[in-house]
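Run log // design_07
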């Protein structure tokens, strides 16, 4: 793990791409799901792994314009995501999602995708620790945008305290959800602070400031704060 932290300044999924490739590139028994949008997750297209059981999904095609993606990608509308996954008839050992970063999209995607995780599976979500409040605005902006995916990640942990979590404070934040307790993961959080964060979002409060000041109590932070 240490070698990935040495690359902390790198952005756009470079670190997690290398990590996933190292872990899964030659394991033909692992089932992997990558989910992205036209405005997020192009780093997922760059993970050229040898594992044959990789399903790549790109949704929100109404945003497509002069757009290219990995040749094996399944391009779908977002409201058909559950139908497409159900038709696959399988669950996945690793799910990586770089969702559209508005809160509603992020929350629904985490919930839906988790249902397709195997009993020993791990889910990874990008952009869960925005490095600045300018990148954490609720609505889409061009350039670096993490939106409110970080809040959706806290929301998921609040409603599923039986799982194990880690938030790597590298890149723009790599959220990890696991059904089993992997090394460095735990689930001992201050639920009152989590709930206050969620309430502040509903009330229009300074959510990012509160998150940054209390993140160590709300989530298992791994790395630098």
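design_07 sequence
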């Amino acid at each position: 793990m240490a070698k990935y932290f040495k690359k902390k300044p790198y952005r756009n999924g470079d670190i997690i791409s290398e990590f996933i490739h190292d872990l899964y590139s030659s394991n033909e028994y692992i089932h992997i799901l990558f989910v992205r949008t036209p405005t997020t997750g192009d780093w997922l297209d760059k993970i050229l792994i040898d594992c044959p059981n990789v399903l790549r999904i790109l949704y929100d095609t109404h945003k497509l314009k002069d757009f290219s993606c990995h040749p094996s990608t399944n391009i779908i509308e977002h409201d058909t995501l559950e139908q497409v996954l159900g038709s696959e008839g399988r669950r996945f050992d690793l799910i990586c999602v770089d969702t559209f970063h508005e809160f509603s999209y992020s929350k629904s995607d985490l919930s839906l995708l988790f249902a397709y995780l195997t009993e020993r599976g791990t889910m990874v979500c990008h952009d869960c620790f925005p490095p600045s409040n300018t990148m954490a605005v609720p609505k889409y902006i061009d350039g670096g945008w993490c939106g409110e995916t970080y809040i959706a990640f806290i929301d998921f942990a609040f409603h599923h305290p039986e799982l194990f979590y880690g938030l790597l404070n590298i890149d723009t934040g790599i959220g990890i959800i696991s059904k089993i307790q992997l090394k460095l993961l735990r689930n001992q959080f201050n639920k009152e602070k989590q709930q206050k964060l969620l309430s502040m979002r509903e009330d229009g409060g300074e959510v990012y400031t509160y998150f940054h000041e209390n993140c160590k109590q709300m989530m298992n932070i791994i790395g630098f704060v």
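Residues 72 and 100 are 21 Å apart (CA to CA).
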